[in-house]
């Protein structure tokens, strides 16, 4: 039982690392597309029309997958002063509820995102001539991963396992950059 | 009742430590459910909230800043600042503030500023006999300057939270005078404290040395001109200019300074993903939350409520400032911008305030909040770099808080400080 849990944890670790890397590739691709847009406008004298919609789709991947990896690495910022000062038992209940909220929202993203994706199959994204569904794939995938990683946190707490923190002591300062 | 569910769920989840994005998301989800709306709408708002081209500037600017710190552009700006103001009373304290101002021109992040400048300056200051608390105080409070000097991705977050109608070029320009004022006020505070404690000055290195360091720093200074000039003149959009900043930073650090390794590049990229994916999720969830706020007519109710307190804009602005400072002591900046903008912006415009002016006030106010306990990410980073407890840093930080608050009041009550420069460009 315990070793199965560990095997599962290793798999989830792989998934979250993959999500982070895909998001990173998305960021680099977004940069390249936007740079190409400026280059096209000023150097080639013709603004490419595909760069904006493509960047936007890439940004969806970048945000939702990056945020999912953030759930597992526990880098999302929140107000965590109260949790550290209340009695241990209350803190356990608070963390439990908080994980539950993350799972519910992730599941909502996946389920309703899938409905949105299904509903836009016949719509067409202008310029790219792709079905509207493409826009919602990232939210569905991100939602699935968020719910999965949230569930993992909950199970780890219940099973008394250590949290899945990636050793990111050194990265901590960078992670706070977002909010400044 | 709907409002109770919306705000009640949000506050409850926030208090139990749920990440802000999910507090906003679940509160919106629950409210839509209660109102009998299809919950689909919440996720549609979330999805459309993050598909805006203007939003791209946020990850781009943070990414560019990360590359510049790792590639040594920041370090060269610090050396230049050192040669120019090092001979003033409080020497390295003044250098720290001037460096933050220059760094603010290439990055809009106060946390990046505190870790980059603090990482370079705090050890030097310790070595030269400055007290550690002084080094931290100066590092932390001057990091706020980076928020005001363009580029400032927080100004972009504000513009987006306000519905995207406020010109980013104007907001960027509006931050310059308040940013320089804050720098001057902090330098004054640093001077006073340095005189009391008898800190040393650095020898004046001579104009030749300054010129040499300026040449080494040219790529960084050029970038300041490219970003601001490009956005201001309309040659690039803010998103495009931030993208150029990345390409430029890569080109300089790889080909000119030759200081960027593959592993540095990967670390900067994944670091930017980690830090910005979360804030963008907060913004997306806030889009759903804000949509419900408007649907429930909260801004209108807020204006009516404020009118019952006072008709006098001076009183209302003071009230809003105090409230924001209070919220800022225990919440982070970008969630506060996205939550409070749709509520307070209609109020202040009803009292005749210019949205660009309010942007400068909001950013400065919440910036001070980043330096105040119990939750202040800039303060945390400064203390972490110096390895001292927060209580030790805060005990002597008062002169610097005082300077910042005086500047905040001046910026609040003298609209010209933020509006004069943008008007010059029109």
Explain what this protein looks like in three dimensions:
- The complex is a heterodimer of chains A (180) and B (426).
- In chain A, strands 1-2 form a two-stranded antiparallel sheet.
- Chain A is built from 6 helices and 2 strands.
- In chain A, α1 packs antiparallel against α2 and α1 runs antiparallel to α5.
- In chain A, β1 and β2 form a beta hairpin.
- The C terminus of chain A is likely disordered.
- The termini of chain A are far apart.
- Chain A has one domain.
- By secondary structure, chain A is an all-alpha fold.
- Chain B is an all-alpha fold and 426 residues long.
- The longest helix of chain B has 34 residues.
- At the A-B interface, α1, α2, α3, α4 and α5 of A face α1, α2, α3, α4 and α7 of B.
Keywords:
heterodimer, A: 180 residues, mainly alpha, two-stranded antiparallel ribbon, B: 426 residues, 0% strand, globular
Please render the helix and strand layout as text.
The complex is a heterodimer of chains A (180) and B (426).
Chain A lengths: L1 H41 L8 H23 L7 H5 L2 H32 L4 E2 L4 E2 L2 H26 L12 H4 L5
Antiparallel strand pairs in A: 1-2
Chain B lengths: L1 H14 L4 H15 L5 H10 L7 H14 L2 H13 L5 H14 L5 H18 L4 H12 L1 H4 L4 H9 L6 H7 L1 H22 L9 H27 L4 H19 L5 H34 L2 H12 L3 H18 L2 H18 L4 H15 L7 H10 L3 H6 L2 H16 L2 H9 L2
Helix pairs in contact in B: 1-2, 2-15, 3-15, 4-10, 4-14, 4-15, 5-6, 5-13, 6-7, 6-8, 6-12, 7-8, 7-20, 8-12, 8-20, 10-18, 11-23, 12-22, 13-14, 15-18, 16-18, 17-18, 17-19, 18-19, 19-22
């Amino acid at each position: 039982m315990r070793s199965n849990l560990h095997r599962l944890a290793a798999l989830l670790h792989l998934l979250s690392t993959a999500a982070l890397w895909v998001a990173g590739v998305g960021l680099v691709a977004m940069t390249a597309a936007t740079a190409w847009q400026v280059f096209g406008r000023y150097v080639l004298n013709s603004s490419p029309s595909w760069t904006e919609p493509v960047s936007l789709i890439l940004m969806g991947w970048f945000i939702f997958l990056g945020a999912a990896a953030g759930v597992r690495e526990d880098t999302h910022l929140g107000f965590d002063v109260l949790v550290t000062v209340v009695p241990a038992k209350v803190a356990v209940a608070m963390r439990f509820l908080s994980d539950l909220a993350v799972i519910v929202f992730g599941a909502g993203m996946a389920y309703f995102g899938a409905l949105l994706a299904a509903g836009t199959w016949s719509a067409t994204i202008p310029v790219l001539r792709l079905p509207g569904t493409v826009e919602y794939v990232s939210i569905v995938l991100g939602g699935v991963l968020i719910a999965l990683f949230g569930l993992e946190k909950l199970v780890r707490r219940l099973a008394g396992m250590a949290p899945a923190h990636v050793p990111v002591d050194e990265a901590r300062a960078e992670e706070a950059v977002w909010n400044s | 009742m709907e409002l109770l569910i919306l705000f009640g769920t949000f506050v409850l989840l926030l208090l139990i430590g749920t990440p802000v994005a999910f507090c906003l998301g679940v509160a919106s989800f629950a409210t839509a459910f209660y109102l009998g709306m299809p919950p689909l709408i919440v996720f549609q708002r979330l999805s459309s909230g993050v598909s805006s081209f203007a939003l791209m500037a946020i990850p781009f600017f943070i990414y560019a800043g990360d590359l510049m710190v790792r590639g040594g552009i920041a370090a060269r700006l610090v050396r230049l600042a050192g040669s120019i103001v090092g001979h003033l009373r409080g020497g390295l304290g003044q250098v720290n503030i001037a460096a933050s101002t220059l760094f603010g021109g290439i990055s809009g992040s106060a946390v990046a500023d505190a870790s980059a400048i603090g990482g370079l300056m705090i050890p030097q200051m310790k070595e030269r006999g400055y007290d550690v608390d002084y080094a931290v105080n100066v590092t932390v409070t001057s990091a706020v300057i980076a928020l005001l000097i363009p580029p400032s991705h927080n100004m972009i977050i504000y513009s987006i939270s306000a519905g995207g109608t406020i010109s980013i070029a104007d907001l960027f320009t509006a931050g310059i005078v308040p940013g320089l004022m804050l720098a001057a006020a902090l330098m004054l505070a640093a001077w006073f404290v340095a005189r009391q404690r008898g800190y040393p000055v650095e020898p004046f290195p001579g104009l030749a040395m300054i010129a040499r360091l300026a040449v080494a720093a040219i790529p960084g200074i050029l970038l300041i001109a490219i970003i601001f000039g490009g956005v201001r003149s309309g040659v690039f959009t803010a998103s495009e200019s931030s993208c150029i900043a990345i390409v430029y930073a890569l080109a300089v650090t790889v080909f000119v300074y030759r200081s960027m390794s593959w592993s540095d590049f990967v670390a900067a990229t994944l670091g930017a993903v980690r830090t910005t994916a979360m804030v963008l999720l907060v913004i997306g969830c806030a889009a759903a939350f804000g949509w419900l706020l408007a649907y429930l007519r909260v801004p209108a109710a807020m204006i009516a409520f404020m009118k019952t307190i006072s008709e006098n804009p001076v009183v209302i602005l003071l009230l809003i400032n105090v409230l924001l400072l209070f919220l800022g002591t225990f919440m982070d900046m970008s969630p506060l911008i996205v939550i409070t903008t749709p509520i307070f912006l209609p109020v202040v415009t009803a009292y005749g305030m210019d949205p660009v002016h309010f942007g400068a006030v909001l950013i400065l106010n919440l910036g001070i909040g980043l330096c105040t306990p119990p939750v202040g990410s800039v303060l945390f980073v400064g203390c972490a770099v110096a390895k001292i407890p927060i209580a030790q840093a805060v005990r002597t930080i008062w002169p610097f808080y005082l300077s910042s608050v005086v500047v905040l009041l001046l910026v609040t009550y003298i609209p010209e400080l933020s509006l004069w420069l943008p008007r010059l460009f029109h």
